[in-house]
Amino acid sequence: MTSPTRPVIAFPATIGVWWASDTWPMPKAQEVAREIEALGYGSLFLPEVTGKECLTQSAAFLAATDRLVVGTGIANIHARAASAAESGGRTLNALYPGRFVLGLGVSHAPLVEHGFGGVYDKPLATMRTYLDKMASVPEAIEPGAGRPVRLLAALGPKMIELSGTHADGAHPYLVLPEQSRRTRELLGPDKWIVSEQAVVVGGDADEQLQYAHGHLNVYSGLPNYRNSWLRQGFDESDLVRGGSDRLARGLVGMGSVDDAAAVLRAHVDAGADHVVVQVLGADPTADPRPALRTLAEALELG
């Protein structure tokens, strides 16, 4: 989906990658990014929890690659002042025009209060105030560069609306393709939607389901995601720790590699502009490349 009125993201392909590299030495992580680019994926999105700082990582991945778009998925607004997020994003945009996406999110109360020692209160108002402060940074900071494309971690209708009025679109995480469709309906054609989709490639059905439940374990205890899943048609019986089998099979692409590829395409068919695949393994920072190589063939990338 294209629009002449929105800012450019120079994605070289519709499918990208979501990967947490916190435990990797950066030179080794850069090697992973280079192979992701060589395989034909269009982006590398990275999280920010309590490990590495995401803007520094983004700069390193951009420097190590030629065309790959790098995005934060998601930069925690409680981790830095709004002026720092804005000026850092402008600097990356000045150096790598069209290749950096600044994804922002309010995070979750346990992480903010215990991981960052902050206060988690009124997420929508907090995000709106933060974005207003970013907008107030004078143009003299990185003059002429402009800001990068800005996406919000938006699950509920009010945050999705804010992602359209105060940002350039949304970065839905742990959602069904139907939620990508709903996000497109709420935002209209002129905003970016970059959806995340977890998959398991290889292994038997029991092992795939085990990885899916392990992935959902932490998220199933967070109110933001629990509420999102209820809005998407699941019920309280699905919200056990690690998620029910129905929730796991709904949110994680499993089965054959072609099945995994099909659920990625389903988000695009539903209205997402770009989909980032998160390969599940023994731990969140496992090497994604073996599965990404197999998946790239099924997606006919390159």
From TrEMBL:
<dbReference type="InterPro" id="IPR036661">
    <property type="entry name" value="Luciferase-like_sf"/>
</dbReference>
<dbReference type="InterPro" id="IPR050564">
    <property type="entry name" value="F420-G6PD/mer"/>
</dbReference>
<dbReference type="GO" id="GO:0016705">
    <property type="term" value="F:oxidoreductase activity, acting on paired donors, with incorporation or reduction of molecular oxygen"/>
</dbReference>
<dbReference type="Pfam" id="PF00296">
    <property type="entry name" value="Bac_luciferase"/>
</dbReference>
<dbReference type="InterPro" id="IPR019922">
    <property type="entry name" value="Lucif-like_OxRdatse_MSMEG_4141"/>
</dbReference>
<feature type="domain" description="Luciferase-like">
    <location>
        <begin position="25"/>
        <end position="236"/>
    </location>
</feature>
<protein>
    <submittedName>
        <fullName>LLM class F420-dependent oxidoreductase</fullName>
    </submittedName>
</protein>
<dbReference type="InterPro" id="IPR011251">
    <property type="entry name" value="Luciferase-like_dom"/>
</dbReference>
